[in-house]
Amino acid sequence: MTVTFKHLVLKPSRxxxxxxxxxxxxxxxxxxxxxxxxxxxxxxxxxxxxxxxxGLSLGAHVALYLAAHxxxxxxxxxxxxYNRFAPSIWKPMFPYLTYGVQNVKRMLPRFILKYLSDExxxxxxxxxxxxxxxxxxVIETVISDREISAVSARTLVIAATNGGLLPSDSVKTxxxxxxxxxxxxxxxxxxxxxxxxxxxNTQDPQLFATSVEAWIDETPLSKKFTEL
Length: 228
Prior knowledge:
This protein has 228 residues and is of the alpha/beta class. Helices cover 40% and strands 14% of the residues. It has a six-stranded mixed β-sheet with strand order 1-2-3-4-5-6.
């Protein structure tokens, strides 16, 4: 099978495959095609044709959609930063606000962003270009009242709740999503990680990596996590 989906392969010698899905590249209108491409990628390149799925932010939305619609390809799911809000009359304005904020952030010196978000220094190279069209897709995803599908794979739903100037994840949404996941698999969990912000994979890469490993290996999570 030929896979044209852009991806990066690291440590192909691992005994099982872990697929990371980053944020802000999809919308509900495109989930079926995005999930189909990822499913093809798993079939073509994953060990034994199955993978552990790690999704952050918009990637968490895609990860749960993928797991719900292609359960035979999924070992476990690690979903962090799944946020969504109820539709309102202000929804049409949010793509423009998001577009403005994202482009202002790109103009700020990296040390200011690091101070505001507690994230590690990064050049931003390789990140998705911020367009108004992309912002519309992001808002269409996070401002929604659509039904959340249950997932049969063991799923960890995480809310990073460190407050401050920049927003953190919604515990209310994490509970809502997590309870739905538990209807598909009683071993699924909902946890809060305090002291971490939404993009905690860059704030504390070591904690993020060891947490993914612990969930896959069914070993205890760090004491920084609190079950909800």
